[in-house]
């Protein structure tokens, strides 16, 4: 008798479309896994594109700090998403080498209010804030916190300055 | 204890409550998805778009006089906009604020700022309020990246005497090819 009731209860729980609910919630609020292609983050992320886990809570709650790897809409093409590392937050001064291939001319810039300074880890082959300047916070899509694929490289990203 | 719970679940009232909760959860999910991806409704406050939307103050009793507008988000799939569209976007200096302004120039076009021409860089656009005297827009913060755009305003839906389509309007003399 009790097992019958239990199964009926179980059935009620399972008919809820948990999968779609969970999918929506994950996609919107918590986690997405995305491939990242390109040479700009080279020592950290492979050129062929690794799958990384991305959480979308920190950008909403303004929890992004310097050293985080973020996914953002490219300011030069809104359809493109790029992966960069945050080097400086609003109000901070950032010093950078303008073109490391050609020399060591150094510039210092103050990041304006509501903006971030992002740069690729591969400073020789990256199109980032050194070209297009500080980016508005609103372009940030999420913070990558963990590398999922390939499995031998699985691990959490460490803060690197 | 779990057995008692099961007994109650099987009974009418709580069973229908469970059904109601399930339906409202699914409904809420549908609602969130639609409002995030396709269409949403939002109040407009402030004076910067005055002839197009009613002027209203940003403090409590005043903003009830503002307009409610319908915003479509289909345009975000390909980021194709026209000059004169009214768009909403996140403020470039504070991502928690959302502004509504008119798109004046698209990437690669020239705009006239006071007396000199300015070329809008790739992936950016130039936005200005219709009420240029009381608007904080691209004339102060420069061109904005198109990635900040969150939707296009298509209709005013409240108050009843202002219901209508939001016209695509070009400002004469602002835009030069």
UniProtKB/TrEMBL annotation, chain A:
InterPro entries: LexA/Signal_pep-like_sf, Mito_IMP1_subunit, Pept_S26A_signal_pept_1, Peptidase_S26
UniProt GO cellular component terms: mitochondrial inner membrane peptidase complex
Entry keyword Mitochondrion: yes
Superkingdom of origin: Eukaryota
Major location (coarse): mitochondrion
Subunit structure: Heterodimer of 2 subunits, IMP1A/B and IMP12.
UniProt entry keywords in alphabetical sequence: Hydrolase, Membrane, Mitochondrion, Mitochondrion inner membrane
Annotated active site: 40, 84
A GO molecular-function annotation: serine-type endopeptidase activity
Residue span(s) of domain Peptidase S26: 32-96, 108-149
Functional description taken from the UniProt entry: Catalyzes the removal of transit peptides required for the targeting of proteins from the mitochondrial matrix, across the inner membrane, into the inter-membrane space.
GO BP: protein processing involved in protein targeting to mitochondrion; signal peptide processing
One Pfam family from the record: Peptidase_S26
Family: Belongs to the peptidase S26 family. IMP1 subfamily.
Protein name, as recorded: Peptidase S26 domain-containing protein
Compartments (UniProt record): Mitochondrion inner membrane
Automatic annotation (TrEMBL), chain B:
Topology with respect to the bilayer: Single-pass membrane protein
SUPFAM superfamilies named in the record: LexA/Signal peptidase
Cross-referenced InterPro entries: IMP2, LexA/Signal_pep-like_sf, Pept_S26A_signal_pept_1, Pept_S26A_signal_pept_1_Lys-AS, Peptidase_S26
Major site of localization recorded for this protein: mitochondrion
Any Pfam family hit: Peptidase_S26
One GO term (biological process): protein processing involved in protein targeting to mitochondrion
Peptidase S26 domain boundaries: 32-114, 118-158
GO cellular component: mitochondrial inner membrane peptidase complex
Active site: 48, 101
Cleaved signal peptide residues: none
GO MF, any single term: serine-type endopeptidase activity
Family of this protein: Belongs to the peptidase S26 family. IMP2 subfamily.
Name the UniProt record assigns to this protein: Mitochondrial inner membrane protease subunit 2
Organism: Vanilla planifolia (Vanilla)
């Amino acid at each position: 008798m009790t097992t019958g009731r239990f199964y009926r209860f179980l059935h009620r729980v399972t008919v809820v479309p948990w999968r779609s609910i969970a999918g929506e919630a994950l996609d919107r609020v918590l986690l997405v896994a995305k491939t990242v292609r390109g040479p700009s983050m080279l020592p950290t992320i492979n050129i062929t594109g690794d799958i990384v886990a991305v959480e979308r809570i920190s950008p909403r709650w303004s929890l992004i700090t310097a050293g985080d790897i973020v996914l953002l809409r490219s300011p030069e093409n809104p359809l493109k998403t790029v992966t960069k590392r945050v080097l400086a937050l609003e109000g901070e001064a950032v010093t950078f080498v303008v073109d490391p291939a050609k020399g060591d001319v150094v510039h210092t810039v103050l990041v304006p209010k509501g903006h971030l300074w992002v740069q690729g880890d591969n400073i020789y082959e990256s199109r980032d804030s050194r070209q297009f300047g500080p980016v508005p916070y609103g372009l940030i899509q999420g913070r990558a916190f963990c590398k999922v694929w390939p499995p031998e490289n699985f691990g959490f990203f460490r803060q690197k300055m | 204890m779990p057995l008692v719970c099961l007994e109650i679940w099987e009974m009418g009232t709580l069973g229908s409550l469970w059904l109601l909760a399930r339906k409202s959860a699914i409904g809420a999910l549908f609602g969130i998805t639609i409002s995030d991806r396709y269409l949403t409704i939002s109040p407009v406050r402030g004076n910067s778009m005055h002839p197009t939307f009613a002027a209203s103050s940003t403090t409590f009793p005043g903003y009830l006089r503002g307009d409610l507008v319908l915003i479509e988000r289909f345009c975000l799939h390909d980021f194709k906009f026209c000059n004169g569209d009214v768009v909403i976007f996140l403020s470039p200096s504070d991502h928690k604020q959302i502004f509504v302004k008119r798109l004046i120039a698209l990437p690669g076009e020239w705009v006239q700022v006071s007396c000199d021409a300015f070329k809008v860089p790739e992936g950016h656009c130039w936005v200005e309020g219709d009420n240029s005297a009381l608007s904080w827009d691209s004339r102060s913060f420069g061109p904005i990246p198109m990635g900040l755009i969150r939707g296009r305003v298509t209709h005013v839906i409240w108050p009843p005497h202002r219901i209508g389509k939001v016209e695509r309007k070009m400002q004469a003399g602002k835009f030069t090819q």
